[in-house]
Amino acid sequence: MESNIRVRSAQAIGRSHLLGGKNRQDALKTGMVEVDGEKIVYGVICDGCSEGETSEVGANLATSFIGRQIEILVKSHISLDRIPWILHKRTVGFLKDILGKISFDSPNARVLYIKNNLLFTILGFIYTERETLIFAQGDGDTVVNDELTIRDENNIPRYIGYSLVERKFLSSNASPVQTDFDVFYLNGESFNRLAIASDALSEEPSFLVDLWGHINPIGLQRRVNVWSLVNHKFQDDLSIITLEKIPKEE
Which residue range or ranges hold the PPM-type phosphatase domain (predicted)? Predict the structure, then answer.
């Protein structure tokens, strides 16, 4: 049965950030493009490093850049399985271009700029009727139907920003530099609903039942607001994107 696609998103500043006077450090982007009559939907979440003073800068730039690149690639008829590899290379190049516009008086100043602005995790999906892929670098949460999967990297995520730093400037326990996204494929018939989220979602697993069924475009955001502002949940910043298949009436 053919389905309509409903996408919802929501964000909240973590309670610890509110109490500490810090900005929200994650960002999200959703979009839809039509290619040869087929609708392709995407979502991207970037979660900034908590140790960075303004890591939301890189997170916001990256979500916007990656979303735009997805649109360009699918409109160019690039096959779905090639897109993550291209996205990774282009995102690293984008970050290098940013650094190339800034003058630093020492290698340490350059590393400090990266730490404060350009360290963030990446979690995204590209949906088509036939196949959907999830791409990731760093930690985060995914939900397929009712199954939660937690990407736990023991508080040392493999930030894409590490590609900008010579290894000698990284601590001995820093994660290895990752040269491509982790990619997971879902057959079009294997799921009815999908969500990606920053890792704050797994801290409140009972919220999973509230992810779905929001007809109002801001319904999910309202639920997140209640949990955050009224119930004082979500200690860390939260970003969520949901996708649901809604059967068309025959």
Answer: 13-202
Q: Left, alpha or beta for 226 (phi > 0: left; psi -120 to 50: alpha)?
A: alpha
Q: How far is CA 142 from CA 20, 216, 236, in A?
A: 28, 23, 17
- Please tell me the predicted confidence (pLDDT) of residue 250: 39
CA distance 93 to 6: 33
**Cα–Cα distance between 131 and 204 in angstroms, integer?**
29
Dump pLDDT digits (tens) for 214-228. 999 999 999 999 999
Neighbours of 235 (CB within 10 A): 16
- Pull the structure tokens for residue 110: 């350059």
Tell me how far apart the alpha carbons of residues 170 and 150 are, in angstroms, rounded to a whole number: 26
Residue 140 pairs with which residues in a beta bridge? 151
Contact criterion met (CB below 8 Å) for 138 and 120: yes
For residue 126, pLDDT over 60 is answered with yes
C-alpha separations of 161 from 16, 27, 92, 178, 249 in Å = 25, 16, 8, 10, 46
Sequence spans of domains, the chain: 2-244
What fold, for 2-244? Phosphatase 2c; domain 1 (3.60.40)
Can you give the pTM of this predicted structure? 0.94
Q: Determine the pLDDT at residue 17.
A: 79
